[in-house]
Write a structure and sequence with these properties.
The chain is α+β, with helices and mostly antiparallel strands and 293 residues long. It contains eight helices and five strands. It has helices at 2-64, 82-93, 136-144, 149-162, 165-194, 203-235, 252-266, 269-286, and strands spanning 78-80, 108-112, 115-119, 124-128, 248-250. The chain has a five-stranded antiparallel β-sheet with strand order 4-3-2-1-5. It starts with a helix and ends in a 7-residue tail after the last helix.
Length: 293
């Protein structure tokens, strides 16, 4: 009887051992099939993030050097035509638009993160200043001083009557703040570029990664918005009473900053989904789909 019990026990031990061995082999056989899929998906995520960030770095750096010199004047944030400013000044002061025109005035004044350019078909000149803002009186003086005194006097007289110096100061402050945000964003590219290398799909990675990318994108977006505010403050007095017909237009540098911010936000798939849902919801509200009616 004791022998039968021992035999039965030994048999069950062997059966359990076989099942354990089979289960282990099953796991070992399945593991090589699952790991490559996870590694492949991880590789796609890292490649997506790195490519987006590299393009974002190029766009941010290109915008940062806008108007630092003549070759970079096309990377401006916004521009203003003296002929349009003269027409506005004539309308506001009851003068004649032609009295504010001169052959010595450039075709366009362009403002970038790193300076202001006076652009003409024949020649262009840029003054370097990081965090530059548009000062119309200074620009008119630089173009007309010693060349067309009569027109310069009209510009100064009209600007003294209609320009709000508080707005001009506010424009400079906003442009300086925008430049500071851009510097912080450029410095943050170092940790942002390193983070994707540690992508293991874990919750810890997402908790650390997502805030860094979101903050970085918002720094770039804030720099663009502040520059928009600086342009508006510098030319607010030139608009119609209804607040329309802004005399300035945006340039390539402005679009580059927003593109760099967008690339940062969509570099991580989770953030891309969040941004897509947010934009879709905003568009739905714009078109009245989320109204209470």
């Amino acid at each position: 009887m004791e022998t039968n019990r021992t035999t039965t026990h030994t048999t069950w031990v062997r059966v359990i051992a076989v099942f354990k061995a089979d289960d282990g082999e099953h796991v070992e056989r399945q593991r090589p099939q699952q790991e490559p899929r996870r590694d492949s998906w991880r590789g796609y995520r890292i490649a997506w993030a790195v490519i987006g960030l590299l393009i974002g770095i190029v766009l941010s750096m290109s915008s940062a050097v806008g108007c630092a010199s003549t070759p970079t004047n096309n990377l401006h944030l916004y521009s203003l035509r003296p002929v349009d400013v003269g027409a506005h000044l004539a309308r506001m002061t009851g003068g004649v638009a032609s009295n504010f025109q001169s052959s010595h005035l450039p075709t366009e004044w362009r403002v970038g993160f790193s300076g202001v350019c006076a652009v003409s078909p024949s020649a262009s000149h840029c003054s370097y200043k990081f965090g530059a803002a548009m000062d119309l009186q200074h620009l008119a003086s630089a173009a007309l001083q010693g060349k067309d005194t009569a027109v310069l006097d009209r510009w100064k007289g009209a600007l003294a009557k209609v320009q709000n110096r508080h707005d001009a100061t506010k424009s400079k402050q906003m442009a300086g703040a925008a430049a500071a945000f851009l510097i912080f964003a450029l410095l943050l590219y170092l940790p942002v570029a390193v983070v994707p290398a540690f992508d293991n799909g874990s919750t810890t990675y997402n908790v650390v990664c997502i805030p860094i990318f979101v903050v970085h994108g918002f720094l770039l977006g804030a720099a663009a918005l502040l520059q928009m505010g600086a342009a508006h403050a510098a030319t607010r007095f030139l608009t119609h009473p209804e607040g329309t017909d802004y005399p300035y237009s945006y340039g390539q540098g402005y679009a580059m900053v927003w593109a760099a911010a967008a690339l940062t936000w969509v570099a991580i798939p989770v953030i891309m989904v969040i941004v897509f849902v947010t934009v879709a919801a905003a568009l739905a509200c714009i078109f009245g789909m989320c109204s209470d009616d």
